[in-house]
Hints:
This protein is α/β, with parallel strands linked by helices and about 400 residues long. It has three domains: about 5-145, Orthogonal Bundle (Globin-like); about 150-245, Translation factors (Elongation Factor Tu (Ef-tu), domain 3); about 255-390, Rossmann fold (3-Layer(aba) Sandwich). It has 14 helices and twelve strands. The protein has helices at about 5-15, 15-20, 25-35, 45-50, 55-70, 75-90, 95-110, 115-145, 225-230, 270-280, 300-310, 335-345, 355-370, 385-390, and strands at about 150-160, 165-170, 185-190, 200-205, 215-220, 240-245, 260-265, 285-290, 315-320, 330, 350-355, 375-380. Helix 11 (about 300-310) links the parallel strand 8 and strand 9. Helix 1 (about 5-15) packs across helix 8, helix 3 (about 25-35) crosses helix 7 and helix 7 (about 95-110) runs antiparallel to helix 8 (about 115-145). The longest helix is centred in the N-terminal third of the chain and has 27 residues, at about 115-145. The two termini are about 35 Å apart. It binds flavin-adenine dinucleotide (FAD) and protoporphyrin IX containing FE. Protoporphyrin IX containing FE (HEM) binds next to helix 5, helix 6, helix 7 and helix 8.
Amino acid sequence: MTKLTPETIATVKATIPFLSENSVKLTCEFYHRMFRENPEVKEFFNPAHQASGAQQGALAGAVCAFARNIDTPENLASAVSLIAHKHVSLGVQPEHYPIVGKHLLGAIDALLDPAPPEILEAWGQAYGFLAEVLTGAEAGLFADKPWEGFKPFRIARKVVESESIASFYLEAEDGNPAPAFLPGQYLTVRIPAADGTTTMRNYSLSSYGNNDFLRISVKREEGGHASNYLHGELTEGGLLDVAAPSGDFVFDFERGDAPVLLLSGGVGVTPILGMLHANAGKGCRVDFVHGAINGASHAFKEEVDALVEKHENLNRHYRYSEPAEGDEPDSTGFFDLALIEGLLKPDTEVYFCGPKPMMSLVHSALNELGHPAERIHFEFFGPQEELLQCPMH
Ligand SMILES: Cc1cc2nc3c(=O)[nH]c(=O)nc-3n(C[C@H](O)[C@H](O)[C@H](O)COP(=O)(O)OP(=O)(O)OC[C@H]3O[C@@H](n4cnc5c(N)ncnc54)[C@H](O)[C@@H]3O)c2cc1C
Ligand code: HEM
C-alpha cells in the first residue's frame, strides 16, 4: 500500500477550504472533461443523477471527506464499503481509475488556473492511495460474485403490488438456481438507453429464502427511464440482464435476539420486506412499520399480513399520510418521534429505507432519542450525498 508522506498530507489538507467552497464547480469540470475525452465510461453513470447535481455532490463530497480524513483512513471504512459495493454492482474495474484520476487532476488544475505542481503531485498521490483502498476492497467483492458482469434472467411473473409498484420474478435463463444473497441487498439491471447504448439501475431484492427466483419490485417514476421500461415494455417471458447481488445494507444476524425495528416508506419497503421474511420465526421480536399515502399505494399488504399472522415474533403497523375513504390504517400522518419512541428499546436494531423526508425524520428522531449509532442501519435509493444535502436532515 502506498504510504503518504507528512508533506503530501499537509498539502492535501491545505486545499480543503478551497475544495469545499468550489466542490460542485470542480466536479462539474471533472465530469465535463471525462465524458468528452473518455465517453466509454458514460454508461456507468445515471444521467438523472447528473441532471439533478446529486452525483456532482457525491464525488465532491467523497473527495472532501477523503481529504479531511487522509491521515485517519479508518474513519473512511464505512464510506469505502458503500462505494466499493456500488462500484462493483456497476462493474467499475481497476482500469477505470486512471481515467477518473487524470480528469480529477485536470479539473483541479483548471480550477486553480493553473495549480502549483506540488498540489497536483500531492493530489496525484492521494488519489492513488484512495484508488488502491477502493480497488482492494472491490477485488474482494468481485471474487465472491457468483457470476461476472451480466447474465440474462427471464421474467417468470410480473405482479401488480399497488397502483405504482410492480414485482418482477426473475429466473436465470441458464436454468441455475437463484444465487444466495443477504436480506437488504440489491441487484443491478442493464437495459437499453435512449441513445442506443445501455444504462444500469439498482433494485433491492424484495424476496428472501426462495432460491427458485429473485424478486425485484419497481415503482413507476414519472419521466423515469428504467422504471417505465420495466413497467411498460418488459412483459412475462421477456429477458433482463442482471448483475449479481451487491450492497452492504444487510440484516446482521450476529446481533442475537435483540429486538428489531423495520421502518419503511413507499417503495423503500423492498429491502425491508426481505428482512421481514428473513426474521420470520426467529427468536427476536420484530416490529415492521410501513408508511404509505393510502390503501391504493400500499404495496405488499396481503403478503405482510399473512407473514405476521403466521409468525408470533412479527408485528406490524401501517400509517397512511392521506387515507382514502374505506382505508383502515393503524394510524395516520407521517412518521414522527412518538411513533419511533414507542417501539424503541435501548438495544433495538433499527433498519430503515424510504423517501428522503422520511429518512431524514427517522434519522433525526433516532439521534434525538440518543439511540446508539451502531444500531442504526439505513439504505437510500440514490447517492448518499443527496440525502445529506436534504434540508430536513
Ligand atoms: C441501492 C438502491 C436500491 C434501489 N431499490 C429500488 C427498489 O427496490 N425499487 C425501486 O422502485 N427503486 C429502487 N431504487 C431506485 C432505482 O435504482 C431507480 O433510481 C428508480 O427506479 C428511478 O429510475 P428511472 O430510470 O425510472 O428514473 P430516471 O430516469 O433515473 O429518473 C429519475 C428522476 O429524475 C428525473 N429525470 C430524469 N432525467 C432527467 C433530466 N435530464 N433532467 C431532470 N430530471 C430528470 C425523472 O423524471 C425522474 O423523476 C434503488 C436505488 C438504489 C441506489
Ligand atoms: C478514488 C476514486 C473514487 C471515489 C472517491 C469515488 C466515490 C464515489 C461515491 C462517493 C459515490 C456515491 C456512492 C453512493 O452514495 O451511492 C460513487 C458512485 C459512483 N462511482 Fe465512484 N468513486 C471513485 C472512482 C470511480 C471510478 C474509477 C468510476 C468508474 C468510472 C466510478 C464510477 C461511479 C459510478 C458510476 C457511481 C454511481 C453513479 C450514479 O449513481 O449515477 N467511480 N463513487
